[in-house]
Amino acid sequence: MFQAAGGALNFTAILIPTLMALYYGFRCLVQTDKAIAQWGIGPAAEQMVKVTGAYALAQGIMYAVILLTSPAGAWELFAFSTIWSAVFLYISIQTNNSEWSKIEGVNASNEPIIVSAVMLALHIYIMATMSDIIYG
């Protein structure tokens, strides 16, 4: 597994987004009510939280398969996730600085900003340093 990824550092760069995606997928799909309460977004957001969880879980499963097999040729998935995490970071910053964040009961935490920034940094690393593997 380590060899297919090009070493332990590259493996870890894929493992961290895998674990993050699996965690948030589980959180959004299985612990939906707790997530909604923690984030203070209201019960009307349940469907969107579950849609987001379905995406996160699918990404986590796909990354887990890549870790168990090989990241060779998986550049499209990593490119998509790089773009997604950049958009996620921009939207998270914009939302945290919007009128929405000032509504009573809304918990506009920095969690989405931190999560998306970590995801973006790791995906930039993957795209830049693993190009000989992922484009193969």
Commentary on this structure:
The chain has helices spanning 2-5, 8-29, 32-39, 46-68, 75-96, 111-129, 131-134. With 136 residues, the protein is mainly alpha-helical. The chain has one domain (2-134). The longest helix is centred in the middle third of the chain and has 23 residues, at 46-68. It starts with a helix and ends with a helix. Keywords: Membrane, Transmembrane, Transmembrane helix.
List keywords for this structure.
136 residues; mainly alpha; 7 helices; 75% helix; elongated
Task: Provide a compact summary of the structure.
This protein has 136 residues and is mainly α. The chain has helices at 2-5, 8-29, 32-39, 46-68, 75-96, 111-129, 131-134. It has one domain.
Structural class: mainly alpha
Counting structural domains, the number is 1
- Fraction of residues in H or I helices: over 70%
What series of H and E elements makes up the topology? Answer: HHHHHHH
The beta-strand count equals 0
Shape: elongated
**Strand coverage percent:** under 5%
Distance between the termini: 16 Å
Radius of gyration from CA coordinates: 16 Å
> Average pLDDT across residues?
94
Q: State the low-pLDDT regions, or none.
A: none
Secondary structure tally, helices: 7
- What's the story with the biggest beta sheet? none
